[in-house]
Amino acid sequence: MAGNTFGQLFRISTFGESHGIAIGVILDGCPAQLPIDLDFIQSELDKRKPGQSKITTQRKESDTVQILSGVFEGKSTGTPIAMLIPNEDQRSKDYSHNTDVYRPSHADYTYDAKYGIRDHRGGGRSSARETAARVAAGAIAKLLLKHHGIEIFAHVSSVGTIKAPNLQSNDVAELLAVREENIVRCADPATAHQMIEFIDGIRKDGDTVGGKVSCIIKNCPVGLGEPVFDKLHADLGKAMLSINAVHGFEYGSGFEGSEMRGSEHNDVFLATNGEGEPKTLTNFSGGIQGGIANGMEINFTVAFKPVATIMHNQQTINAAGEAAEIKGKGRHDPCVVPRAVVIVEAMAALVLADHLLRNKVSRVF
Amino acid sequence: MAGNTFGQLFRISTFGESHGIAIGVILDGCPAQLPIDLDFIQSELDKRKPGQSKITTQRKESDTVQILSGVFEGKSTGTPIAMLIPNEDQRSKDYSHNTDVYRPSHADYTYDAKYGIRDHRGGGRSSARETAARVAAGAIAKLLLKHHGIEIFAHVSSVGTIKAPNLQSNDVAELLAVREENIVRCADPATAHQMIEFIDGIRKDGDTVGGKVSCIIKNCPVGLGEPVFDKLHADLGKAMLSINAVHGFEYGSGFEGSEMRGSEHNDVFLATNGEGEPKTLTNFSGGIQGGIANGMEINFTVAFKPVATIMHNQQTINAAGEAAEIKGKGRHDPCVVPRAVVIVEAMAALVLADHLLRNKVSRVF
Amino acid sequence: MAGNTFGQLFRISTFGESHGIAIGVILDGCPAQLPIDLDFIQSELDKRKPGQSKITTQRKESDTVQILSGVFEGKSTGTPIAMLIPNEDQRSKDYSHNTDVYRPSHADYTYDAKYGIRDHRGGGRSSARETAARVAAGAIAKLLLKHHGIEIFAHVSSVGTIKAPNLQSNDVAELLAVREENIVRCADPATAHQMIEFIDGIRKDGDTVGGKVSCIIKNCPVGLGEPVFDKLHADLGKAMLSINAVHGFEYGSGFEGSEMRGSEHNDVFLATNGEGEPKTLTNFSGGIQGGIANGMEINFTVAFKPVATIMHNQQTINAAGEAAEIKGKGRHDPCVVPRAVVIVEAMAALVLADHLLRNKVSRVF
Amino acid sequence: MAGNTFGQLFRISTFGESHGIAIGVILDGCPAQLPIDLDFIQSELDKRKPGQSKITTQRKESDTVQILSGVFEGKSTGTPIAMLIPNEDQRSKDYSHNTDVYRPSHADYTYDAKYGIRDHRGGGRSSARETAARVAAGAIAKLLLKHHGIEIFAHVSSVGTIKAPNLQSNDVAELLAVREENIVRCADPATAHQMIEFIDGIRKDGDTVGGKVSCIIKNCPVGLGEPVFDKLHADLGKAMLSINAVHGFEYGSGFEGSEMRGSEHNDVFLATNGEGEPKTLTNFSGGIQGGIANGMEINFTVAFKPVATIMHNQQTINAAGEAAEIKGKGRHDPCVVPRAVVIVEAMAALVLADHLLRNKVSRVF
């Protein structure tokens, strides 16, 4: 109820502050007998961790995950899986100058106003560090989805005004390989090169820039999604909007769809004549109709605002409402999207895993 | 769990199919002693009902609401408020030709695939008729918000490629008056005229077109929103995405924000020197920081795809997967946004009412 | 959250006051394609309705149920099933003398204290009339359980100090037939006769008396129940304790078990040698071990206090805290257990149906 | 949903197996600014830990708790409070002989049947060791309740057939002092002496015995409890029934109340004439009417079956259903109630804290 739990049947509860002892997550509802591959979980965390490249923050965290419960002899037991990620690089002193000052476009003021108390060290709970716990749990969700043949792939589709072309492949393994070859995590190598140059310039300016992450889900079983409120895209949208810095979500035809006519937007069904499941000629529906997956590729895009921490001095106020200046120093990400790709995938995986379970009780037979 | 409940503390459960006996809603968690103005609830429903003008469907429904419980001598009692809206214009025969055919970009196929059974009369549960129940409950949410001084205003900000300019007033009552003077519900009269002409042309073509609804929330108390998952904008986003035909949501700087730099996007705080609550110079944050309302105006935009029901014959398939043709006949909305304005407001009100209550338990003192 | 919803996956939300327009229930999560037998639902309600015999209240209510949604051509569609039971005998004037007076051991005072407003007509929401909605939903739960071969049987096992012997049959149909042959709903005819005589005397005294209802569940699948908090008996216990007038719950060895030694209480497993599921020699566990059904018969007992409405004049206070007298008049049940039998069964069925669905997602394979 | 979460607004999620790395809990929803006294939390755990006396198991666990998050400079921050209790005495080998054998009246068989996999070391998740996490969270609940003046006190009211007299004091501090002076935790020293002798004899027999814990709650605010399903006693009942080995729950007049007449059972209100809140002459209602606290002392009793682990050899079966013998060895509690007292208090505190928060949103004014 206090907002730190996500999912209904495949449900996570996260905890932890940026500069506390540890962050972590309890995953409750993972079905029993799922093989749990700790190396895979760690590899997912490695894609989110800071210090990966010149275009990510230089904060050092190994983000080593430990499983405390719920796994026995390599398999889930049906009991809660608790995972712990100790905080290592707790340079709290870096943040001592912020104790009494509200950083612009951060959550300093709103946390103080809401709770009357604030762990000011590195943003505390409002830090994107919290998303590491989501990635750990999302990795287990991916293992469950993989078991059902479902694949999720996200990449950086824009940085500032630099946009990647549409995906050139339907092969997720191939896309993944291409994406991981560049530090910005764009599936188009040429665009990736431009993006990296651009972000590096932004970094040298001490500034930041926004971007977009696009995601596809392949082999989603027909039927996932629970109308009328828990439509599949509504739950995906909430999941994405709950990620730090996200300001927008669209699926299928998205915002452009609002400019289209019905006669062009309608996805015409192709006759199957009994061979396999129905497909549609176009996919403006983004793989979801009436809130329920229709078996076509699910696709959506997530817009991230520029990171608020910049290396410029900024005017602001302190807790007393008096004018104050905040110094531009410390470590920061010039652009969050390269590290956000795996967070988007993790949240998508959590939504899918949840709806996979929920759909198991939709029929008597 | 099956998706027909929305909200945590101020919680609605809706029921009903398009052509069944009635639709309705139970609102559980409305605090006691709230004056319940039935006329206001009905007036909200009247803004959503079909048959209002030449640019809405000609289906006739008075959408008369009846309160069955939870209100005594004009006030809420703290017990569940059940509201019933009988279906009047149940011309089921209009839909008999659709019994075995999947209409393109409707939910016919996905409902059948998910449940193995489908009430095919007018879309059954997947019909936007269900949103009448949301509007009724949302009206009570508005009464609660009004009690706390919170105002919500939405209008049609685009139809197809016709876009309205930014709002010219901060006075919600004035905006509302302007909006209700035109049948498309746009707060800019000149744009409204263009939109109406355009939609009427679309209607004559037997086609449909998408559009956008923009919404502002004024006087939202600082502190509403529950990080990390139930961020205020995440819950707003889910609420909007759960409305039929919505394909996108953005708040604050939205998708454009992804192209900006941090140095221009950051909302600088203005010194209060002890006078009132902090304000920011700009509002790219859209009134929400770290998922918590910061006291500035909340604003967001919702993209609607074009209505799938068109008056053209279309190729499709039947339940056996065989090619079939669907005839363009019956009654339909050429553009859904004029009627969607009040649905957007209702869902926003439900989210705000819920978070208003949730925030009451955030502190010991 | 406000307490009017029960169940997780098979979930009901009830509404309505004793003397309002109607009471009712939304059942969300009933799996699609379940045949819905309206006659059976009505027959269950008939067992709870007032005015059945000389030992129940003479209030007249036909308790005729109407299904508003969620059922199409005789089967559940997977969408919410709303059911309505209009209130007919709304003699509000009978209760006008109670407007300002708190009846002893009723909920008049606590509702007023909690909500600051109270529908005083016949107890409003606190009336046991609300349980009719549970019985209607419970009937559908029974249909789902029947589909899985699960049987539930309850009867009056004591009235005052008159106790029935242990059940003499394992045949639920037979037990049911015997039970329904007497108006007190005890499966032992001789004891039933004593109970009826006793209650009739109590009634003539204008007094009331408590009693107990015992319930068995046969053919419960092994595995139902979700440790550690949602143990099957914990959910059964909550379900029973939520029924008006219930003051105690025990299962298996119950309170007597607290006097036993482990060496006598342990239920020894019998070797199956591969033939069928394990059984135990004794069943002090009441069919549940570690919160999970073990396949043996589930049994529990529920204690009801005497009804608070008596035909004697009683000293009490009014809302101002001043001494007042309450007159003994109106219609009342001298003993609630004969009508409570079907409520106990309904709540048990709702718990079982919920856990049946919940258990479907406990394993990957 | 999978059963490891308890509470709605003041909500805990526990994790961990008996012989895993650690057990722990996330408490979400603790209001901000509550002083968190770690020493008090530890002192509560010390009352539950094994190895306290000759009548408890000799397993050695310091049960040292660590707070990982949610507390800053000694106060709650409104973010999740995670607590970790490492397992120290992990003598898994003690349990290796049980790998393939189902111990009678344990959860070995049902966990295996439900999940198809089982952590057999010391009962895994089904071990009462899990309750340590509840005690830690319950201690924080007690701190919140103390802040509101609410006191909870439980003690051992019976062991086997040895029953303690009614409490001789209304002073919780005094009762607590008396209780803690004896190792069985009975508030009556003379009875305590008898109980200890009896349990010691049982222990020497290698046997176990059941008992009862009774609990009172003082200064509970009028209004707590959420009808109709989340009645205060229904939530207390579920809380107690979720504790390992509990087979029964009663409040107020309890099972005896089923034998009483209304004319004797009704709690007559005493006139206040404007001085303070209404009181009743008797308290058969146990401080709760219509599911809502009425300001009188809340009281209830919990029945525990005898511990299943005995030092006798027992006949049983293995996973193949073949006859097997289980050896009586290892460490065990001859009677669970002395250590259960603080668990009962913790669960009661969690229920009260939850309802305290829930009641904050029951009225507009």
Automatic annotation (TrEMBL), chains A, B, C, D:
| Keywords of this entry | Amino-acid biosynthesis, Aromatic amino acid biosynthesis, FAD, Flavoprotein, FMN, Lyase, NADP
Binding of NADP(+) occurs at: 48, 54
Q: Name one GO biological process term.
A: chorismate biosynthetic process
Q: Write down the chemical reaction(s) this protein catalyses.
A: 5-O-(1-carboxyvinyl)-3-phosphoshikimate = chorismate + phosphate
Q: What does this protein do?
A: This reaction introduces a second double bond into the aromatic ring system.
Co-factor requirement: FMNH2
Q: Which organism is it from?
A: Pedobacter psychroterrae
**Protein name from the UniProt record:** Chorismate synthase
- Which pathway does this chain act in? Metabolic intermediate biosynthesis; chorismate biosynthesis; chorismate from D-erythrose 4-phosphate and phosphoenolpyruvate: step 7/7
User: Does Zinc show up as a keyword for this record?
Assistant: no
CDD domains the UniProt entry points to = Chorismate_synthase
This protein's gene is called: aroC
